[in-house]
Write a structure and sequence with these properties.
Radius of gyration: 19 Å
Order of helices and strands: HEEEHHHHHHHEEHEHHEEEEH
Mean pLDDT: 96
Shape: globular
Low-confidence stretches: none
Number of strands: 10
Largest sheet: 6 strands, antiparallel
Strand content: 5-15%
């Protein structure tokens, strides 16, 4: 068993997830990849064609689309919510900027279960609009899915196109990611990995977005909703190691992945998390300039630009329940092994 496969197998033995897939590589593709386990605890063995719910790893993909719009002049990092969303012009979010939304410094509160009291898209979006700020904008890093919901609305308003279309046109299609999309069709759902036996829905969720706020939004949100395969995540990882090639100009990509919030004590890039002083969700094996994102369902994408290396880990750690934190140890062990993989020789 390879060094990468060992922590993955251990995670399944500890019932952290039923299945996992991984890839570690560079701009030219994977150095090591594999899969282990089953789509659900009583389901078929993984065969490589599975669809995984990315959860919050959706955020940096949407962020790439937003930066592509910045590059095209459709909006700027200093564009405000009120500039683009008329309904926000008289509220406390009118002067929030695209930059603050991307860096989680808007002051909009974090994970709020709005779906419990707002069962329709219109009512949930109104609840997002009315959420009171919990910090003065620009003074604190506070992770906010609600901020990315607004960011998705801004992208739509700036272009007149739906968010799912924008993500496909600006990110997925240029990179050849043809198995990455919101709202899987019934045929695609048959290939999806199971997530939670959801108390709110009263059933096992498979092929439908796990995030409940995203469910009410119709499966498409700036914060969650994308499904993908390991093959497509390898394409994204290679593009990131290649300085955003295929999606952004190098200078735009450098701006996106640079540290923007070190003065606030936590490192955030534009739609990415950096490695804080105390480390990152994946440990400290990747370099100090590394960046990435994790997803609640057990997914992650992390990039070390100095080592020219990406690491993708896809699991269904919320299956059949979200209880338990075993994924933390698995992520750290996996990324430690990923960082230790030898680089390919020039002859390779």
């Amino acid at each position: 068993m390879s060094a990468l496969a060992e922590p993955i197998a251990a995670g399944r033995e500890q019932h952290v997830y039923s299945g996992a897939a991984w890839s570690v590589g560079g701009a030219d593709g994977p150095l090591d990849r594999g899969r282990h386990g089953t789509r659900s605890w009583d389901g078929p063995t993984l065969d490589g064609g599975e669809l995984w719910d990315l959860a919050s790893v959706t955020k940096p993909v949407v962020g790439l689309a937003v930066m592509a719009l910045v590059e095209r002049g459709a909006l700027t990092l200093d564009s405000t919510v009120g500039d683009l969303l008329p309904g926000y012009r008289d509220g406390d979010k009118a002067d929030l900027t695209v930059r603050q939304l991307l860096t989680h410094t808007s002051g909009i509160p974090g994970q709020v279960p709005l779906y419990r009291d707002h069962p329709t898209r219109a009512s949930l979006l109104e609840a997002v609009r009315l959420l009171p700020l919990t910090a003065r904008p620009g003074t604190r890093v506070q992770y906010s899915s609600q901020g990315f919901i607004i960011l998705g609305l801004i992208a739509e308003a700036a272009t007149g196109q739906p968010l799912d279309t924008l993500v496909d046109q600006l990110v997925c299609a240029p990179l050849g990611m043809r198995q990455t999309f919101f709202r899987p069709s019934p045929a695609h759902r048959a290939r999806a990995v199971a997530t939670e036996d959801c108390p709110w829905r009263g059933r096992l969720v498979t092929g439908e977005v796990h995030d409940e706020n995203a469910v009410v939004l119709g499966g498409v949100g700036g914060h969650a909703g994308l499904f993908t395969t390991l093959d497509d995540m390898e394409l994204l990882g290679a593009a990131l190691v290649g300085d955003g090639r295929g999606v952004l100009r190098p200078e735009t990509f450098a701006l996106m992945t640079a540290a923007h919030t070190d003065h606030l004590g936590l490192r955030r890039a534009l739609a990415w998390q950096g490695r804080d002083v105390v480390g990152s969700p994946v440990g400290t094996a990747f370099g100090p300039d590394s960046y990435g994102h994790t997803g609640f369902t057990g997914t992650s994408l992390w990039v070390d630009p100095a080592a020219k290396r990406y690491a993708v880990l896809l699991t269904n750690r919320v299956h059949p329940t979200r209880d338990g934190d075993g994924i933390t140890a698995v992520r750290r062990a996996f990324h430690t092994a990923a960082a230790a993989l030898p680089a390919p020789s020039p002859a390779d």
